[in-house]
Each structure stands twice: as structure tokens, then as C-alpha cells.
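Annex B. Sample input.
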Amino acid sequence: GQLAPTTLVGQRSTTTPRGRNPEIDGYPIDMCKLLSQLQAPSYIARCALNNPANVRKAKESIKKAFQYQIEGKAFSFVEILSNCVTNWNMSPLDSLKHIETTTSKVFPLGVFRDVDEGV
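Annex B, continued. Sample output.
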């Protein structure tokens, strides 16, 4: 329930009860964009677990990341956006919708680097 690197601006946590304030707490860190600046990563992707299609994509991304590791293609990074109904104080359905309407707008889904696909 505490502030995390990806806690959204204004989002409340136990350590930021008034919501994340960028002037005090800094801005959320977009790890996929940050790691995309490096030469080494072979695969970087962000997925969500808010609907069956996205769960399927997440499984594919994780499988690809492991395959690249087995093949010795540097390192891979897969970021997963998932809900937290307890700390978000939302119903399960509202929290899944929140990922689609809010979280994924700040942290867009997709593949940021794939050495085999030329991305």
C-alpha cells in the first residue's frame, strides 16, 4: 500500500495519503521507456491483466522474454500492469476498468524493444 515508482500522480497510498505530489514525491517512472534508452536489452514490453486478450498477450510476452534469455540475447524486461482492489479502494470491476482508462494512458501497453522484430 505504500508509494511505488509507478504510483500515479494524485493516487493515494499509505505513505502518500493526500495523493502522489510530483513536487514532493517525484513523478512516476516509466521503466520501459527508461530501459529502452539502453543498448543491451533484447526485449522490453508492457502488458496488462485487465481482460482476457491482455492476459494472453502478457503470457506471450513472458514466454518470449524467457526464450530470449535461454538463447542468450542479453536481458529482457516485461512490466505487468495489474489491479489492487484493496489499496485502490475500488471494486474488482472498477479496478480493471481503471487500468484501461487511467493507468494504461500513463503507461501505454506494447512492445518497446524486440531484437528479432526490429523494434
